[in-house]
Amino acid sequence: MSAIDAVVFDVGRVLVQWDMRLLFAKLIGDPERLDWFCSTVVTEEWHFQHDAGRDLAEMVAERKAEFPGHDDLIDAYATRFLETIPGNVPGSHEIVRELAGRQVPLFAITNFATPFWREYRATEPLFDLFGDIVVSGDEKLAKPDPKIFELAAGRFGHEPGAMLFIDDNPANVASAQALGWQVHHFHDAQTLRADLASRQLLG
């Protein structure tokens, strides 16, 4: 393993928990209808369009037309997104703070819609420790598109091979690795901590 000059985190499901079903479980009492709604109407695949920069109002209007009778639920996606984030991934924030304490440069690349990111970022001071964060909604580029990694490398000021990219999505990890980044496929903080220790980034 080559030396690491900087560590680059994904956000969702690496630093923070995320589950859209949590919001709709508050609003839909019937389990079968909840399953149908989350797999057909407000899905992660549909949400990904907003992460990639598509306009929220346009998406919502289109979905309401496609699924009439569900306006209130579709509006909840647009207005109550923070309720899909129940808390932090156990152990990950401690790792970020320890790396920062060791003066390791920290960055992030996140698939996150611009309005949702601004709303969430205002609640989480952990990101004050990051030198820069590339947000897909701002750039209208989303992982695993190689272009977002190329943009990030230019912004962060380190060569890809000198950065460790951490993400839970195997497609994102593979894309970064193909561009020469060092990578860690995230499963849990304990395994990440062991990898960082093996690279002499943590004690």
Automatic annotation (TrEMBL):
Gene3D superfamilies: HAD superfamily/HAD-like. Coiled coil: none annotated. Pfam families: Hydrolase (PF00702). It comes from the Bacteria. InterPro entries: HAD-like_sf, HAD-SF_hydro_IA, HAD_sf. This is HAD family phosphatase.
